[in-house]
Amino acid sequence: ATSSTLSFANAVEANEGSFDCVVTNSCGSATSTAATLTVNDAATVASNPSNQTVCANAPASFSVSANGTSPFTYQWRKGGVNIGGATSSTLSFANAIEANEGSYDCVITNSCGSATSSAATLTVNDAATVASNPSNQTVCANAAASFSVTASGTAPFTYQWRKGGINIGGATNSTLSFGT
């Protein structure tokens, strides 16, 4: 290191420190002020978001964490498209709805570059509802009879038929049949 320039082709943390230069000629020497070399680490993803499955109108959130030299900026994306205002390490939905379903990732940036998290999927399940109710029936003694119900929402569904508000053992299909 005997020229007027000290260069590091690929600076690493081991190169960090305080550097000065002693300039000498036939009449003496002078020492420069010290300059500090700080080597920042590029942003990397320390933890990726996890897939979420929630019921409609329930909260959901995705989080990431970063390694590297701070400060970091965060930009959440849905399907690769930036989400306006989603610039923290956590993306939250107070009341997730079907329109929120999709694939989310986060771009983490610092002064040395950026890194993109793996994608996580948000699935929003709809609550079970009765799409069609059973119909009243009148039958003759010893004739077959059945009641059916149709469910909507997110499957799978379970069924439990009741008589007078009390569970009927084994009556766990969408149709309750009596008959010969």
Which runs of at least 5 residues are low in confidence (pLDDT < 50)? Answer: none
Radius of gyration: 33 Å
Terminal CA distance = 102 Å
Overall, the morphology is: rod-shaped
State the share of residues found in helices, binned by percent: under 10%
Q: Order of helices and strands, N to C?
A: EEEEEEEEEEEEEEEEEEEE
Structural class given helices, strands, pairing? mainly beta
The total beta strand count reads 20
The number of distinct helices, counting runs of at least 4 residues, comes to 0
Overall residue-averaged pLDDT value: 95
User: Which percent range describes the beta-strand content?
Assistant: 35-45%
Specify the biggest β-sheet. 6 strands, mixed
Q: What's the layout of helices and strands?
A:
Elements: E1 17-19, E2 22-25, E3 28-31, E4 35-37, E5 44-47, E6 52-55, E7 60-63, E8 65-67, E9 73-78, E10 81-82, E11 90-93, E12 102-110, E13 113-116, E14 120-125, E15 129-132, E16 145-148, E17 150-152, E18 162-163, E19 166-167, E20 175-178
Parallel strand pairs: 6-14
Antiparallel strand pairs: 1-4, 2-3, 5-8, 7-11, 9-10, 9-12, 12-13, 12-14, 15-17, 16-20, 18-19
